[in-house]
Amino acid sequence: MEKVTYKLDTFEGPLDLLLHLIDKAEVDIYNIPIKEITDQYMSYLDDMQELELEVTSEFLVMAATLLSIKSKMLLPKPPVIELDYDDDYMMDEDYDPRAELVSKLIEYRKYKAIADHLRDKELERSLIYTREPEDLTPYVPHVIENPVKGLHIADLVHAFQKALRRMTSRNMIAKIRRDEISVKDRMKEVVNWLEQAGGKLLFSKLVDEDMTREGIVTTFLALLELMKMKAVVCYQHRLFEDIVIQAREEGFADGFSPDEISY
């Protein structure tokens, strides 16, 4: 005797099964023929038991719900009792035992449609192949660091004026003038002082009390030339404070020396 194989459709839950039965019967979800749908539902559960498939509790709960609705639909409607006051619990003559089930089915159908739409989008996305990310660092434009970033020309002018005022306010004392130093030699002196000071020096330390106006100007120009050569950077901790002169680490690390100063 040839062996007969039975195959049952799988459903995600009792609502999924009910929707399948309703769509298969091509009936209006708002006017479910509860007797026919209940009979088909119970028949499906019987088939599952015959095939020794596990019937979960949620399917049994829905079966009990359908049988309860079916029994209420078969029973005659009780007479409407009119009360003299408004009561939230007064029986509605238009009450439909299927209403709550219909509401759940409609909501489930919406979620099922959304899930199917997302599943289709997932399938479409799986057919798209994108290029692996690459390292674009070599293509990033190199930005040259500004050695005087954060320091405006007005700050240098202010420091220069401050040094001039300090020189002007000194007592006029007769003294022997010495030959003024050149900008090139002053640059070498600044580099040497930075090396001795550990790479950092205050601008005020470059201007001593005996320095002439010409000497201050020479020092100022020497500092600007060193900044132009990217040998030093200048900055202030706060507005109007003394300017800090700091040797650029990469410059001195590469062996920058006063002997390289020539122009």
TrEMBL record:
Primary localisation category: cytoplasm
UniProt cross-references to InterPro entries, sorted A to Z: ScpA (IPR003768), ScpA-like_C (IPR023093)
Short name of one Pfam family: SMC_ScpA
Taxonomic superkingdom: Bacteria
Cellular compartment(s): Cytoplasm
GO-annotated biological processes: cell division; chromosome segregation; DNA replication
Keywords, alphabetical: Cell cycle, Cell division, Chromosome partition, Cytoplasm
A cellular component term, taken from the record's GO annotations: cytoplasm
Function field: Participates in chromosomal partition during cell division. May act via the formation of a condensin-like complex containing Smc and ScpB that pull DNA away from mid-cell into both cell halves.
Complex and partners: Component of a cohesin-like complex composed of ScpA, ScpB and the Smc homodimer, in which ScpA and ScpB bind to the head domain of Smc. The presence of the three proteins is required for the association of the complex with DNA.
Family listed: Belongs to the ScpA family.
Protein name: Segregation and condensation protein A
Species, as recorded: Paenibacillus piri
